[in-house]
Write a structure and sequence with these properties.
mainly beta; 43% strand; single chain; 2 domains; 16-stranded antiparallel beta sheet; elongated; TIM Barrel; four-stranded parallel beta sheet
Length: 387
């Protein structure tokens, strides 16, 4: 019998207990306090900022879960105040935080931390998230670290590189005639468009990626940073944002048909999937994406079995082909095309990617050697003429 999957795994992907967020409120200003950080900062129910977090990341970009102590939450009708102490790892880095909010919409979040030993990190400090809805494409004013002012706009389309650099403050309108200024002190900040990673936010983070990473915070070294929000303008009347959650079960979304849904398959999964064809049929996928990477010993037998599986469950079969080499990419693509031709060209769609392009490369980092993509695509059109 398979081990039952817990509700925590289904909902969050981990069996760790998830603490519900606490709501901080100062008049019309609200924020969710969770794991020492703030989410969904709203004024009269309208979201100004998606999140403000003081985070510590290791040399592999893993985010530490802080051990929080001495947590004190205080509130009055027109203000709230939160203080706490936090320890990272085995105490190699410790920091204290103070959060203040007022009914006029102003908010401050400050953090002061000290390394108790030489501490290696890729990022330690504040991260701010601006929402996408109502913000993408909108005008904003930014202040740079040299105090110069620039009138610009948030990217409307997904921007693959940092749209804003050398940041000290960002001001944008979250309601007609109401603006919020987000000021970030203590270091140089820059922004990336997180839609590149399917996250619905613009992320402004500490320490430019063009600087070397990982870096070391020396034993005894102290960092001090802060983020402050200030609301300005004079709206005559602010309509409260009231959104009731709802779930609609339908075959269309906003009048459009739901996109076709498929299943991905790796050669290592073949035995299990071949033994569960009936279940796969019940899932009724429109297509089966067959992963093929010769670097790991995948061969023509794997392709044949994956194609047969797609036919058995009544789904289209697509090929996801990783081009293994840089120097001989045209040969690799041509040879894969010959194998597929011998199988009777079962793949209605072919997706190719050179292996180096699968490596995560952050903006500002050296790009790994990679064959010219346009030449890869042309070789693929020749090698898979019926796809």
């Amino acid at each position: 019998m398979p081990t039952p999957i817990s509700d925590l795994i289904r909902l969050y992907g981990t069996d760790e207990q998830i603490q519900p967020p606490r709501i901080l409120q100062a008049g019309p200003l609200t924020a969710e306090f969770e794991a020492g950080n703030l989410r969904h900062i709203r004024y009269h129910g309208h979201e100004m900022i998606r999140a403000i977090s003081f985070i510590v990341r290791d040399k592999n970009w893993g985010t530490y879960a802080p051990d929080i102590s001495h947590l004190d939450l205080g509130s009055e009708p027109d203000s709230f105040r939160v203080t706490y102490e936090a320890s990272i790892g085995n105490g190699e880095f410790r920091y204290s935080a103070v959060i203040l909010g007022k009914a006029d919409g102003s908010l401050s979040f400050s953090g002061k931390g000290t390394a108790t030993s030489d501490f290696v990190t890729n990022r330690t400090g504040f991260v701010v998230l601006h929402p996408i809805e109502g913000v993408a494409g909108a005008a904003c004013t930014i202040e740079h670290v040299d105090s110069s002012i620039e009138q610009t706009a948030f990217p409307l389309l997904i921007d693959p590189i940092q749209p804003m650099k050398d940041l000290r403050a960002i001001t944008h309108a979250f309601l007609p005639r109401l603006e919020v200024t987000c000021r970030m002190e203590g270091d140089t900040f820059e922004m990336e468009d997180q839609r590149n990673w399917t996250d619905a936010s613009f992320k402004t983070y500490v320490r430019p990626l063009a600087l070397p990473w990982p870096y070391t915070i020396a034993k005894g070294e102290t960092i001090q940073q802060s983020v402050t929000l200030t609301v300005s303008g004079a709206a005559v009347r602010i309509e409260p944002a009231v959104k009731q959650p709802s779930i609609i079960l339908d075959k269309s979304v906003n009048g459009r048909n739901m996109p076709p849904l498929g299943i991905g398959i790796h050669p290592r999964d073949l035995n299990g999937m071949e033994q569960n064809i009936r279940t796969l049929k019940e899932a009724a996928p429109s297509h089966l994406v067959c992963y093929f990477d010769p670097r790991f010993g995948h061969n023509s037998t794997d392709l044949k079995r994956m194609a047969a599986l797609g036919m058995a469950i009544g789904a289209e079969v697509w090929l996801e082909f990783v081009v293994p080499s840089v120097e001989h990419f045209e040969r690799d693509i041509r040879e894969a095309g010959l194998v597929v031709d011998e199988l009777g060209n079962p793949f209605s769609a072919v997706m190719i990617s050179p292996a180096p392009d699968l490596k995560c490369t952050l903006p500002g980092s050296p790009w790994p050697p990679c064959p010219p993509l346009e030449e890869c695509y042309q070789a693929a059109r020749t090698a898979f003429p019926s796809a």
